[in-house]
């Protein structure tokens, strides 16, 4: 069967990473979580004490950094140069400023080039904010995944509290971060979050994870039939 490129975009907590990863596994495709790349650079900048509100400082550091994403069994491993930042990329302090870092042209150019290189041979499921519009404008299947803010925050809260029982976050903290990031990602000048004209809209508010994966699998089958 022909191997295609699948672009999945949408706001925070819509289920993109979870279902994109499962879909790639079902199809025997490569999976790339582009959000983890923006998070990894942000994490490294914070680690080095670079002021993330100073674009020229961010750009001078970022241009010399290499981000590598590996799917090791079920685990996502994200490296910046030789440092494994996987355990830190979802921390609240990274979530709080990743959208500011992701709005800089130098950051986007640096990462988009690498994302396009990884997709050269097709057979890839990539998720993010600008995959269908900028990174893979010729992807054979584009899906814009969304869900209500309340449902997206609820999912995020469950996900965080399961993995960090000693460090609970409140629903209010999560809602605030999601809304703030959605606003910055949608309003930024370069590659804002928006549904590509040829993308299929899929609202997952009342769908389970499995139902979403089945729906996407059926969409791929239709395109490759
Ligand atoms: O998983 P979650 O929805 O919380 O976010 P993510 O996919 O890990 O992405 C984190 C942030 O990176 C987003 O809020 C965007 O600011 C940025 N991002 C982007 O600008 N473009 C992408 N293709 C992917 C992520
Ligand atoms: O990548 P994105 O920010 O769009 O979302 P995610 O991290 O993949 O999904 C957030 C959480 O929602 C995960 O724990 C998923 O298992 C869950 N989820 C769900 O409950 N129902 C869905 N239809 C999709 C995801």
Automatic annotation (TrEMBL):
EC class name: transferase
Pfam families: Cytidylate_kin (PF02224)
Catalysed reaction equations from the record: dCMP + ATP = dCDP + ADP; CMP + ATP = CDP + ADP
Cytidylate kinase domain location: 6-221
GO biological process, one term: pyrimidine nucleotide metabolic process
Binding site for ATP: 10-18
Keywords attached to this entry: ATP-binding, Cytoplasm, Kinase, Nucleotide-binding, Transferase
Entry GO CC: cytosol
Family membership noted in the UniProt record: Belongs to the cytidylate kinase family. Type 1 subfamily.
NCBIfam families (UniProt xref): cmk
Family matches, as HAMAP family: Cytidyl_kinase_type1 (MF_00238)
Name assigned to this protein: Cytidylate kinase
Species, as recorded: Negativicoccus succinicivorans DORA_17_25
């Amino acid at each position: 069967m022909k191997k295609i490129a699948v672009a999945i975009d949408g706001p925070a907590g819509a289920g993109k990473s979870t279902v994109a990863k499962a879909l790639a596994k079902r199809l025997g495709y490569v999976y790339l979580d582009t959000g983890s790349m923006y998070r990894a650079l942000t994490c490294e900048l914070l680690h080095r004490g670079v002021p993330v509100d100073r674009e020229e400082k961010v750009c001078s550091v970022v241009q010399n950094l290499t981000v590598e994403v590996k799917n090791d069994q079920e685990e996502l491993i994200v490296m910046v140069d030789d440092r494994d930042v996987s355990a830190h990329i979802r921390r609240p302090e990274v979530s709080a400023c990743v959208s500011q870092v992701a709005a800089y042209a130098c950051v986007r150019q640096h990462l988009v080039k690498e994302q396009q290189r990884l997709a050269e041979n097709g057979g890839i499921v990539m998720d993010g904010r600008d995959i269908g519009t900028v990174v893979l404008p010729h992807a054979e299947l584009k899906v814009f995944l969304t869900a209500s803010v309340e449902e997206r925050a609820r999912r995020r809260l469950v996900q965080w509290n399961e993995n960090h029982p000693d460090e609970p976050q409140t629903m209010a903290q999560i809602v605030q971060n999601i809304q703030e990031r959605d606003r910055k990602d949608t309003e930024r000048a370069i590659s804002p979050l928006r549904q590509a004209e040829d993308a299929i809209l899929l609202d997952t508010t009342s769908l389970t994870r499995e139902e979403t994966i089945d729906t996407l699998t059926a969409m791929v089958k239709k395109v490759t039939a």
